[in-house]
Amino acid sequence: MNDDRFRKQRIADDLEEPVNEASNLAERLGLTPYPVNYWVVDYDEMNELIAYGGFQKRYPHWRWGMQYDRQQKQGQFLGGKAFEIVNNDDPSHAFLQESNTLADQKAVITHVEAHADFFANNEWFGLFSDGAPPRAAGSEDDGRGPDAAGMLARHADTIREYMQDPDIDRSEVERFIDHVLCLEDNIDQHQPYRPVETARDRLAEIEGVDVTDQLDELDLSEEVKRQVFDDDWLEAQSDEDNGATFPSQPEKDVLGFIRKHGMAYDEDAEKAVEMTDWQKDILELLRREAYYFAPQKMTKVMNEGWAAYWESLMMTGERFAGDDEFILYSDHMAQVLGSPGLNPYKLGLEIWEYVENTENRREVVERLLRTEGVTWRTFHDVVDFTEVQDHLEPPAWLQNVAGHIDELDPEDPRIDAEGLIGARDGEFDVANYPWKVLTYEGLAQRHYSLVKPQYRGFVSRVGQAELERVSRYMFDDSRYDSVEDALADVEYTRGWDRMREIRESHNDVTFLDEFLTQEFVDDNDYFTYEYTHASGDYRVTSTDHEDVKKKLMLSFTNFGKPTVVVQDGNYRNRNELLLAHQYNGIMLDRKQATEVLKRVFELWGRPVNLLTIVKEFDDHDIEVAKRRDREPEPEEVGKRLRYDGEEVTVEDVPWSDVEHLAATDIDYNTKPDEWLA
């Protein structure tokens, strides 16, 4: 054990300089991450952390063992390799696998710094921080970011105590957790987390009245209290609802609604009874965890693409990977970007690069359109794009700082005067750390995207429609005498500045919605494919960006899961729960839906219903379609599934009952109303 600890200490000592310098470089590039604590772990420990979602302590449950086993098998049989794991915490905690090469560790460290920046600055992560309790009342940490490690550890201790309580059956606790977890994505991820406040809680706060104490003073039996003065009665005492529909609007936070109104089913008594304290407590703890992890699911593409972008810039653009590490790092990045399927690293990186390029192009185009003799109509005829590229090229000293160290002007805004003095005094090797001599402005020009070989034709490809649009909305009408004068005023930081603005406010859905254009789809060869009844296989169906966008939206709206809301908590005036599937063209899996209904019944204590829409195909139409090589037209019909504790029934319902659930188009606009201004 001691030898193992000393070996990890030696590895940690070797990583001290890369950790410090990566943090310094990230700050120089304009990133503002949470502080990061790095931990060196072995292979098994890394698998445990991945299984636990990046944390060292979670509540007892079989799901963690299953995830650990899956992770191990992936490494043993599928060639998967765990490079890193980092959590959204302040400070963040990142775990480095000791068997990785130094090149891999450097890549992980730069990747982690970018993740920590995203955690600290993206508003969707702020939703949880705003609603979370402080770290410790009155402590100096109040007001900082989340203390998720502490929160999850406290949850683990609470649930473990319930499992160890001799008056509580451990298997019942495990079953209850299973029931809750089937709904962990059915929250309102666009709202900040708030603990559920029941009617009993609200009335207790009115003028300091404690309803429980008042009921105790009546000296009533527990049976009477449960049956007469239950939550329904307490709800009626509140004037909030005023007889409105229950709920008045569809409720997205299904877990919260069940925490507030749900009951347990007593098999012996064959009726619904109030949940026990431990059930209510565990339900709320798991709901809080669902809200904590929601932003990570909502920003997977953005977050991983953001980290991949800055990792690549630091490792290759600033040569954070040494000459002897460059090949290993290239292999590392190829593995990450080459993963099959819908790869969030690759998609995210490509969109971030596109955002940078389009913003930089707009800046250049705006300058050129203010040049004498250049209009949006004549742009492609009169502009010499080779001349444009020559003027945008960074000066020789920016491309080779070490070779021109004695020529640099400390008054130049692109030069860090203190760093220049340090370099000239030999305080650091400027060949290894040229960025220490440069400011944010200098680094932005040094890495200007439009002069990179793969993007040298990006300005010339600007379309007439965009030229007209830019020309129409330019506010500065001053003119330049020449292209050289115009490009001398280019703001090289504009692309990075715009990227940071987007990083603050968007999630994956809005990110794809706004920036997945036809130009992007064409440049990166994206397309859609569908299963066809005519051929019985999958075929490419479209390269139109709207079709590609809609297809991707289905993978990201509500974490790619069906959106199910509470439509009625007193369906048909029988205390039954009516859930509604917000149909977007994709049918529910009937088998999974049935199993979920059975679990929701255990949390509601009374029959549970689910409204949905299904597509039905006529056999004759399918045969005709095969002969004519075209797709049959399905009929969409309404269905209601119901589980009463014994059996599941399915019945057709009138279209008028489900018409409000059918989207006229793919419904992926999930921006909060207040952010649309």
Automatic annotation (TrEMBL):
Protein name: SpoVR family protein
Listed Pfam families: SpoVR, SpoVR_C
Domain SpoVR-like C-terminal, first and last residues per copy: 562-613
Domain SpoVR protein-like N-terminal stretches: 13-363, 486-559
